[in-house]
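Researcher: Here's the sequence for the chain we discussed earlier.
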Amino acid sequence: MELAKVTSKGQITIPIEIRRKLGVKEGDKILFVEDRGRIVVMNSSMEALRKAQEDFAGEAERLGLQSEEDVADMISALRRER
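Model: Thanks. This is the structure I predict for it:
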């Protein structure tokens, strides 16, 4: 368990061990999410990546892509169309 103090401006310093576990560094954004009455702190970049992965789940199968080469070929074809 880690403890942080809130300043008069509402700021906190995230303890180093928590920053390491979240994978955040200077300039990164932190996401606060309410979950069943608790506030969860997340690395916003990692959450955005997780959400994108979730949104794209099953798309490769739907498009018939079975290998990285299939994906590269599809990207090349789309670029030629533009």
